């Protein structure tokens, strides 16, 4: 196993038309969830990926389970549970590709996952654990589950990557800061947005943000800047990587998760910082050009073609 992650899987209802959701009459059923998007991104790039979760023992839960298994992700640590409906969200997408998410996950099936249920042998098989701020924000004992996972990862020599992924519809800035700062002393790779870094550290200046994250012990610090590209630092190296222009912006959800998968792919394959950032930027650009949280996540060969590094024979 290369990568494992823990998170809530959701059914995502995407609007058929753009504009305010109150005027949308039809939706299409898709799947989503930050950690799940990341897992799909890693699997499509060719990494052996495992997902730890709980889903409702209902039609939506079975749909997610089968979809994820079909992507080649290990689901041996995923269980369907009674009494907890599979989480949902509805998306609002405006004409420019921006939008909002409306969550219905107050009684998440992941509340049945306890720290004691984490299998240490599963962690022993992996190289890296990826965690985000979404899972603990949902509530229940999810924070304790992540702390136990981090402990098991550290005990067994795994790298730990962390994306704050702060969802202010799920918790306040103060609660997010109080909780997520407790992860930082154990994190090797930080993958953050600019606003999230300011919420956590109270700092906006990029080099100071990097130094603050490194003061906790992070080896890699990456700041995702969307259409402005990304900034990365490893040891004494500091690189500003230009954005890669997408073909068209359709739906921005999932771009950050795809970026994370791309950067982690680079790290696990021993790439230099510049190559990893460029690869991750390309995936972010590819994701926003496709509707859906993870439909635009590419296979490795697709990224090379997008970067002009591989010839594509179209007919």
List keywords for this structure.
single chain; 315 residues; alpha/beta; 9-stranded mixed beta sheet; 4-stranded mixed beta sheet; 11 helices; 13 strands; globular
Describe it.
The strands form two sheets. A nine-stranded mixed sheet has the order 5-4-1-8-9-10-11-12-13, sandwiched between helices. It is an alpha/beta fold. It has eleven helices and 13 strands. Helix 9 packs antiparallel against helix 10. A hairpin with a 5-residue loop joins strand 6 and strand 7. The mean pLDDT is 93.
Q: What is the residue-averaged pLDDT?
A: 93
Shape: globular
As an assembly, this protein is single chain
Q: How do the strands of the widest beta sheet line up side by side?
A: 5-4-1-8-9-10-11-12-13
| Measured distance between first and last alpha carbons | 36 Å
Order of helices and strands: EEEHEHEEEHEHHEHEHHEEEHHH
Q: Rg from C-alpha positions?
A: 18 Å
Low-confidence stretches: none
How many strands in all? 13
Largest sheet: 9 strands, mixed
Number of helical segments with 4 or more residues:
11
Q: Structural class of the helix and strand makeup?
A: alpha/beta
Instruction: Name the beta content range.
Output: 15-25%
Helix content: 25-40%
Helix and strand topology:
Layout: E1 3-6, E2 10-15, E3 27-32, H1 34-45, E4 49-56, H2 59-70, E5 78-81, E6 87-93, E7 99-104, H3 120-124, E8 128-132, H4 134-138, H5 142-155, E9 159-163, H6 173-180, E10 189-193, H7 194-201, H8 206-215, E11 220-224, E12 230-234, E13 237-241, H9 255-268, H10 273-287, H11 300-306
Parallel strand pairs: 1-4, 1-8, 2-6, 4-5, 8-9, 9-10, 10-11
Antiparallel strand pairs: 2-3, 6-7, 11-12, 12-13
